[in-house]
Amino acid sequence: MSSQSAPSDVFIAANFIDASACAELKAEARQSSAIPAQVTKAKGRVDLDMRRTSRLFVSAEKEIQITGYLQELKPMLETYFQLSLSGFEKFQFLLYRNGDFYKRHADKNDRAESPDYIKARLISVVIFLDAESESYTGGTLVISSDAEQFRVEGETGKVVGFRSELLHEVEPVRSGERHSIVTWYF
Prior knowledge:
By secondary structure, this protein is α+β, with helices and mostly antiparallel strands. Helix content is about 25%, strand content about 30%. The chain is built from 4 helices and 14 strands.
């Protein structure tokens, strides 16, 4: 993990999901077909110059398990960020392979043409299912906060939450496979 302390608008909890549960989730997801992840679900747009990663899928039983983790996380985020959250979007299970990335972007904006779900986002969440130092190289999550960049290395079971208007990116994976779960609280 980065030696610098997290900015106040970034929440980090190590070992939020234990390693054996992470391994089970990855093993099941690997059995699904990978499809390109969309940039926005409103138009179903895939933009491989902006985001090159794949979505994987899990059984209804594992979806319930992941939803339980996200419900458990909600009051922690509310306390940390001092706000009330009413729910979260359906999560995405993501696989980044060699060369995959997501360029710098924000998950929330208030532009008139933006879909309501993007305008409603308050907190973005990433749950790492494997460790950057063991399963892959590169693929670091970089969050821009108050004119500084905060680098978050993946660790098995670590959760990272941050305000959805913050610019962030996933640097290209150089080797191996990076598995994560993402969602957005509103």
